[in-house]
Input
Amino acid sequence: MTTSSKAISQRFVETVLIPMLGIACVIVLWAITSATLVKALPSPLQTWHASKLYVLEPFAKRGELDQGILRFTWYSLQRVAKGYALALLIGTPLGFVLGVSKFFTKAFDPIIQILRPVSPLAWLPLGLVLFQKPDPAATFTIAMCSMWPTVLNTALGVRSIPQDYINVARVLQLSKQKRLFKIMLPAALPYMFTGFRLSLGIAWLVIVASEMLTGAPGVGGFLWQEYNSLIYEHLILCICTIGLVGFVLDRLMSMVEMRLRVA
Amino acid sequence: MSLERNDAKYLEISQVSKSFGALTVVDDFNLTMARGEFVSVIGHSGCGKSTVLSMIAGLTESSGGAIVLAGKEVRAPGPDRGVVFQAPSLFPWMTALANVVIGVEQVHPKKTRTQHEALATHYLELVGLGDALHKKPPELSGGMRQRVGLARAFALTPKLLLLDEPFGMLDSLTRLELQDVLIELWSEDDRSALMVTHDVDEALFLSDRIVMMTQGPNAHVGEILTVPFARPRTRKAVLEDPSYYVLRERMIGFLESQESPKAEAAEVSVVHAVQAAPDVAAVA
Output
């Protein structure tokens, strides 16, 4: 056997086999728990049987709240995209201003720290009052909750621009525009992207809460409906879907982030 | 006639001082430099030599006195004073070429993109980086990065080059290589240069005059040494010149006389000097 194929099989063991082992352990524990301690918890097998239709026909549409799981996911992702875009649109310039100006930091940092921990469950009713419709209320809630990591990390990124870079820009007498787009933005970009990644995670977290309260079709809406219809197997299906999608989003973002760090 | 006068007093630093709060770091610093001259400023670390350079660059505001370059008072930084920083300070997201072009654009706003790139390429080739134009700083070694730093400063065709311990972060072999690159660029381009260093041999090899600063606070010019070696210089010829050791002794003597509790810097530079020129150790 050559060393490279050995390295590949080693990698396979580490990235696939060992994690599979962990997942298998959890499923076994889950099966035992549902069989002995908590009878109300659907077993893994029951869950699979009840969810098969939704997983094997992921894009089917049988009714407003009876659709394939990926179709629901797609609705949720669209909703997240809107709120997330709004969060970046507001959060990035806000973070930049905070990073550049000590005055703004002093003025607005306390209010940011106060707004940051507010739960989506608190923002959504306010959104409904403000916009009178569930969709913009959901967008508003996602934006309000997910904007903060972008704001704080962008500000940190701008503050961390080495003085040397600023000195070079001063010696070269770069215009304000060039300084912003050619020096400050690229220098702060790795930090900004960490903020973008964390924000996306929160945006996805918030979607369930906002769909549950508004009853909109999507993974969260489906979860709430199936809870009310007493089909508990589908709760687990939704939880797994939400988790997997969140994981994939985070991985995609960190791939971009790594590229930026190396560059 | 007036032109000659100006050339002799190309850079005039008179009674410049710098205070940070109650602490006066530099006090009554006076120096006149002729056009085309290479002057080194040497002193213990923390004596304020980098502060002087930063004031000439316009990056630090002076607390008193005046700095006049080619008849114009220095008030703000500008590309007429190219600075080579101790850390190369390249933008890591740009290629070597782009790092030089961004300066060239500022100095020649009317030229085309192709002309900017041609000029930048010319200087990068002069520093021996013709093959690395499109590499980004993380792909370059420390010495190569500082070569880009030199190219960026020279490509501005500045009135005065300011070098702030430009080779301080490099190993001694790379340092010697870059000293050769610097002296070549300087003589080819007919630039005036002011360099801050704490390396005695570096100062002797490169400079026309060496300004020795007293230990801070209230640091000022202690002694000015004229370096007589003929140009173009080779390291061998300089090391073989008997006056080399006399001058070296005088500099080390001056620096040691300035010694205070904070004297590690002098020791470091003497140790380094012995490494760079082993025959000195034999003589001593």
